[in-house]
Amino acid sequence: QSVLTQPPSASGTPGQRVTISCSGSSSNIGSNTVNWYQQFPGTAPKLLIYINSQRPSGVPDRFSGSKSGTSASLAISGLQSEDEADYYCAAWDDSQNVWVFGGGTKLTVL
Amino acid sequence: VRLQQWGAGLLKPSETLSLTCGVYGGSLSGFHWSWIRQPPGKGLEWIGEVNALGGGGIGGPNYNPSLKSRVTISVDTSKNQFSLRLSSVTAADTAVYYCARGDLIMDAFDIWGQGTMVTVSS
Asked: Which end of chain A is less packed: N or C, by CB atoms within 10 Å?
C-alpha cells in the first residue's frame, strides 16, 4: 500500500480537462514539495512537474500542478491521445526519511 | 546527460542482486544518485541514494528502512558510476530496477536509466 494515495484510474475525451489527485500527510506533502512523473508502458518514468507546479523544459503547458495542505493535483488540459499513460506523484517523507510515491493513476483517453 | 545501467537479470533466491549505473555526459558531483524499483504491474519504490558532493566528497548513503539491512549503494567517482547491491533476494524482489539522478534544485528525479528487469526464481 502506497504512502501517497492516488485514484487508480482516470479518463477523459480528447480536448477535455482531467485532474488527478494525490493525498498525503503532514510528514510528506504537508512539509515538502511534490513531483509528478509520467510513465508509458515498458519505459522509465519521466519528470513532468517539480516543486509542486514547475514544468521541466519541453513539457507542454497543458500540464499543470498544484498543492494545498497535504494534497496535490495534476491537471491536463486539452487532453490528447498521447497523454494516455500512468502518472505518479512523489514527495520526501520527513518521518521515514524516504521518498514516497503514489500508487499511480492510469489515464485513459476515450 | 544519460544514465546507462547494467547487471544480471535472473537470480536464484538467496543470491545477491548487483546493478551498476553509468553516468555519461555529465558529472556525479552535486547530485543525489538513487535506485528505484517497480514490481510488475505495481508502483514505484525508492530503494536508497548516495550523494556526490562537490570536491569529490561522498555523502550518505541513505536507505529505505524497509530494505536497509540488505542494501548497499556505492559510488565509483573514477568511473563516473554508482552501484546497487541487494543481498538475500526473494521472489518479492522481482522488479524493474531504475537508477535516477536527483537534482537538488528541482528536488526531483530528473534523469532516469532505461531500467533493468530482475527476476528472482528458483
From this structure: N
